[in-house]
Amino acid sequence: MLTPSLYSINPDRAKPWNDLPDLPIHPNLYRSIEVYEQLAWAKEALGRLQGRSVAIPNQGLLINSISLQEAKASSAIENIFTTDDELYQAFSEATIEQASESTKEVLRYREALWHGFEYLNRQPGFSTDYFVQVFQEIKQSSEGIRPPFSQVYIRQGGSGSNVGKPVYTPPGGAGILEAKLNNLVQFLNDDRAYPIDPLLKMAIGHYQFEAIHPFRDGNGRAGRVANIHLLTQKGLLDYPILYLSRYIVENKGDYYSTLAGVSQRGDWQSWLLYMLRAVTETAQLTYEKINRILAAQDAVLEEVATQKTIRRPDQLTQTIFTQPVTRVRHLTINKTYAENTARDYLNRLTELGILERKTVGGNHYYINRELYSILAE
Q: What mean pLDDT value characterizes the chain?
């Protein structure tokens, strides 16, 4: 492990860490054979995913299905759970008002993912306003950065004698959060002043955002949204489709322990290796899912095309692979088919065993079980 003397650690976990070091960190904290080897593997996996995604004609497949799974996994890290059935059914509706609160939170995360992506397409780079807007979308709140002397604490969870004790106290005080966010924004945006590989910049920036903890709640989800947006903003991905939170859910203990290791011991290497492994494994997972979905879509299209009375089988097939649950309106909203034709075609696909029809409250939902199972794995 590299010497922590290169990084000032948090001396008192129960007091605001107003001396949280500004970025950049000392280069010796990330220059190691282990970090650069894992960085190479992560970039290779990410490049393969990007190359596959740009060749897909139906981008809705990525925009809807993959981002829904990312939203579900990221919310699960914060102990916000919903079932796939409820999530996909709610997403298929024109409004989410009837959904459970947990499902609404997951869908808000997805909206924040796309709202932030569009924000960065309009603006030259990250800003404090970007973080505020992502947070407000996730929480459906008008709040901004927490007030100067409204202190929050990160407390010990689980069980045992230390439950409830502060394990970390983020900065607080007049102008401090704003100054530290400005420093973070400069670090993320200025590649000339801070010429660090984007994946390392993502990992370093994520730690810094979590350490600043600028909002009362929702910091983890806002920070994970920003991770993906940094990759799109730096040109490593065209769309925010990296399924990064899946790895964090499955390695949740290591996520929190390596974050704490930076604050408590200056152990940047373990944190960076953790995040690079997350990119490597989730890029490979997403790549494999996309290939399986495309193979399933081609097989279905081949079968649907044999039904000579079904017009535009390619559009029909693309629609049922854009999201796991299809409604009649998904085929009429863009005037692909008239309502009666759309209903007839979905029922025909049900008879062929391609879809499964489910009726809830008088409404018909057509479930693509093959897509559903691929996403769930």
A: 91
